[in-house]
Amino acid sequence: MSAATILQPKNPPVASLACFHCHDVCPDDKIRIEDKHFCCDGCKMVYEILNTNDLCQYYDLDEKPGISLKNRRDARAYAYLDDTEVHEKLLEFNNGHTAQVTFYLPQMHCVSCIWLLENLYKLDAGVTHSRVNFLKKTATIQFAPNQTSLRKLAALLASIGYAPEINLGDVDGAKRPAMNRRLAYQIGVAGFAFGNIMLFSFPEYVGLDAATDTWFAKVFGYLNIVLALPVLLFSARDYLTSAWHGIQARHLNIDVPLALGIVVLFGRSVWEILTHTGAGYMDSFAGLIFLLLTGKWFQQHTWQQLSFERDYKSYFPVAATVKNGDAETSVPVQRLVPGDIIVVRSHEIIPADGILLKGSARIDYSFVTGEAAPVKVKSGERIFAGGKQVGESIEISLTRRVSQSHLTQLWNNEAFKTPIKGHATVLADRAGRYFTGLILAFGGGSFLYWWLVENNIHTAVNAFTAVMIVACPCAVALAIPFTLGNILRILGRHRFYLKNNQVVEAFSAFNAVIFDKTGTITNIAQQRFEFHGKPFDAQSKVAVRSLTRHSAHPLSRSLYESMPEVPTASPEHFEELPGLGVQGVVQGKKVKVGSAAFVGNNEDANTASGRGVYVSIEGEVLGYFEVKSRYRDGLDEVLDYFRSLRRPSTSRTHSPVWLLSGDQDTEASRLAPFFPDRDSMLFDKSPQDKLDFVKKLQRHGQNVLMLGDGLNDAGALRQSNLGIVVAEDTNNFTPACDAILHADEFARLPRFIRLAQSGVRIVNRSYIIALMYNLTGLSYAVTGTLSPLVAAILMPLSSVTIVVFGVLMGNWQAKRLLRQP
Amino acid sequence: MKIMLLLILISLLLAAGFLLVYLWAARAGQFDDDYTPSVRILFDDTAPEAEEQHEPVITGEKAKN
Fold it and tell me: Does residue B41 belong to the interface with chain A, where contact is any CB pair within 8 Å?
């Protein structure tokens, strides 16, 4: 090879070839059908399946529909679906000739996916019907169990790239509750009654009754009662029961004054109509309930595709492969007992603690401990549940049941047993107490005045009920769902997903911040490589880049991408050895890239430095690339923001910021610029340690915001007052938390927090507006002369003002805070 | 003017009918997924292909008869 070819290598024509199916780069032009090239046999197979079944429209509907099958799981992985117990749990319906199942398909991403999955019957004659819910990424499939099976369906979906995700949480415990449509019915009934009552109240509004027959007034009045009855008994039911529970628990929540208003409004209207002393306020009553329910619906908007309640069960497999002599059977993990010997293949998760019997185990415990480097385990040593095997298949003899394993025990901690956070927000509760006091003071005062001073019991009752009606905090009850719900949606559009309105509010209260390290402040996707060893010339770079280009291993891929300026050549005799590395002949020289043992560096092979990628050319070891994690963009600004926050109390100290890592302290010096105070960095913390640390801070009166990512943070996230998960892919596993932040938006976290805090300020201002309306209304009410017309105008007007004010202010703040710098 | 009563009854029945339709639709899950149907409606009708697929089955049965 001359130097010229190195400097100006012929860019092989295959470089531009994109796979027809998944659009990845094809390593060569060998895999093809007619003029269509494929990157691997998997993609070619999917194309063949679709082509023979006349489903190639798949490629026309959206631009890049195909899913790479490079990380496909073994078809044997679905053997457990033949188990009858698993069947019963997964099938929603089964009568012998029709069965129904809903699969979660996280790979679903475009219009083509919907189309293909709804045409599943063309691929399997046993499928009678399939329907996709794109937002939830689920497919509900009806099939004939005598023609096909659950296992075949799962394998079919996996073979076309949509591997169903079935985990222990799906089959353990109760079936998922059906969707709650009660609120939709309640709104329907309230809306129906509202419209009709308004119609029947129309003569009253324009004063027709007095002029014409009073007979109409009576009929309309009775009709209004009939229409309002279901509103009180069905639509408003939740408010009444919630208030009742509040009173029983001696806790004045916002629903207490609300229910008081509702009941009095209804009661007085019925009384007026039946005694023919007035037209009642049924229109206001139905309208109020309708608005309240609409607010509830608006606030109930949860992120359907996200789950905030996951525990280890969403991460654990449903079944394990148990070895019995030479036979391998698939057994649901709940039935695994100590003494069973299980086979764990590459990238499978170890379901229970055990002892390694056979094979070379490299266990990735990143989810359990936060430590990113895989741990080597020797035969006879213990392996803990939750780890993921990287490399060849291993055999493990189990020592514990799944529910008693080291990791799963974390979930027995009391933090997971108590539903710490209630339903109503602190803001609402405060308003509840204040309004109950206000109403009782004004109502009682005017009642006593009219009764004792003026000796007029009739006006006294009138004034009392009028106060109840006017001061009813409906506007307040609307301010929270609409204002905070709107902010929740805005943040969701910016990929910061909050669990509910309480979380928006919690951002105003925290005064201590804890960061996890791996995955939270380090960016796994953006690794840096530093070469250690002999001088590394341009030719070697070409060799390394050419080889790694053809490997699917994540380290190879990031190594390849780390040298974009280096040209590539096509290697001959390319070979990838799983768990070891890649080798091939580049420009006439035999090159190996991979682990220390693979390239022939025997000194390092047995040391713990498993994080390097070694290179040898013609048998000579040149050195290794050290993998350096990179910190997320904007980490500096985020830390500065948290440090600049003063504690809300009179104390002058700044919010303490901590780093809590499961890793060893090797990175401490690199983190020093970010955490100048060495004592604020705590390393080598187990999941339990992290939880205890949060508890300790809380005992010292601190309100803790925790940022984490993995299962190892689950306890701390749950215990903290505000747990945020930073996720690269929000569809992947996230532990139970209050909010999920997309990793790309990490730098904007301070802006998001400012917006959430402004939400609470907007609600407080809404309260002031509501109070002004209330005082206006009260000035009528205490005199006992509240006409239905005034009530009918004043109540909706104040409600609408609050809703519009809250939403517009939220939008304006969002525009101000979230616009790109 | 008492004829108004009849009109009111009819209008109420009509409105109640709409309420029932809404409740039925909600119960049938029509408001559960507000995104996928908007995509589904744009797919080409694949009915002719489905017929082709079924035809051999029918002829097979006819042949038996």
Answer: no
